[in-house]
Amino acid sequence: MILLKGVVMSFQWANTLLFQLSGSKPPAAGHRGDESPARGAEASDFDYDRLMAVARLLDPAWRTITLNLPRDGDAPIPVQVDTGSGGQPQKRSQYLLNRESGAVLRVTRFTDGSRGQRWRAFVRFGHTGEWYGAAGQAIAMLVSLGACLLVCTGLALSVRRLAASLRRRANAATAEQKRAEEAAVS
Question: Are 63 and 84 in contact (CB under 8 A)?
Answer without folding.
Answer: yes
